[in-house]
Amino acid sequence: MADRLQKVMAQAGIASRRKSEELIKAGHVKINGQVMTELGYKVATKDKIEVDGIPMQQPEKHVYYLLYKPRGVVSTVSDEKGRKTVVDLLTDVPERVYPVGRLDYDTTGALIMTNDGALMQQLTHPKYEVDKVYTAKVEGLPTNDQLQTLRHGIILEGKKTKPAKTKILATNTKKGKTTSLVQITIHEGRNHQVKKMFKAIGHEVVGLRREKYGFLDLTGLQPGEYRDLRFEEVEALQSGFANFKQQGRL
């Protein structure tokens, strides 16, 4: 994925982005032996960049994937217990990638994998508030009052959760035991948060899947499969979804 020259220079530690722009405009930068003064020039991985005659090493190419995490896989790069990790599933990805946030061992669903540290930090920062939509299979049938509690926020470990959106999708009674499928949308990322929220209102979670991460969903993917994020999807993530919102695509 091509990036603007000044951004590539900043990522390589040559100078700040603004200072890099000044170097470009002043004719200090060459691309493949030719002086480049165009600020919007998109640099390809194969391009050879020189600053004042000194070759610049381009940073590792950033890659972005959406993984449908299956059950029984840990959301880490390595596991001391020898369990399969989400990285093990990306069999044809040569870059060293990392999961953005975590899904529990027994939780399935949408998980972004990337080596873009800046984007990872942005997406996991509390101020980012990206919506995450889950389908939770819970014991029993939550009442509207109980769900209303989650919508207003509840105290977990001394701190109130942000308001959630909830909706009952289906119920099932088998051998005298009732379970419900509940859709819940949150934008926090506390440890085991969804499970703890339902437990707090008296309904244990027996199955959990993250259906959407922001505008990204599992369409076309089966558990264990993954796909490249499209250029416009990456741009939307980097811009806080502003581009997609402006285009009416969210």
Automatic annotation (TrEMBL):
Enzyme class: isomerase
Keywords, in A-Z order: Isomerase, RNA-binding
Domain RNA-binding S4: 3-60
InterPro entries xrefs: PsdUridine_s_RsuA/RluB/E/F_cat (IPR042092), PsdUridine_synth_cat_dom_sf (IPR020103), PsdUridine_synth_RsuA/RluA (IPR006145), PsdUridine_synth_RsuA/RluB/E/F (IPR000748), PsdUridine_synth_RsuA/RluB_CS (IPR018496), RsuA_PseudoU_synthase (IPR050343), S4_RNA-bd (IPR002942), S4_RNA-bd_sf (IPR036986)
SUPFAM superfamilies: Alpha-L RNA-binding motif, Pseudouridine synthase
EC number: 5.4.99.-
Protein name (database record): Pseudouridine synthase
